[in-house]
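**Tokenised fold:**
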Amino acid sequence: MEEQLLKSTTRHIRIFSAEVDQGGEFVPSNQVLTLDVDPDNEFNWNEETLQKVYRKFDELVEANSGADLTDYNLRRIGSDLEHFVRSLLQSGQISYNLTGRVINYSMGVSQIAVEDSK
């Protein structure tokens, strides 16, 4: 039976049931999930916050271990990660990339501290 590529795509999180080969092509896999965070570079990331997303991803995958790999389960993980990215923005751990090709404040305008002009 041929393996089927499952995927979950939200604005900032893309998950594929696949490995990426040397040519950059997806090879469907029932054993490997590939995570693409913020593919449009909407946010400014540092290594620490990016690792938080990967750790959250690992935690969510582990919580689903033993369950069948389905579109629904993958979408639920993607949705949970999307909410996690929103929490990183709201807590100021990431910010919008104002030099990105598209600035649409898809997660709402974040709070900006206004300096007192006294």
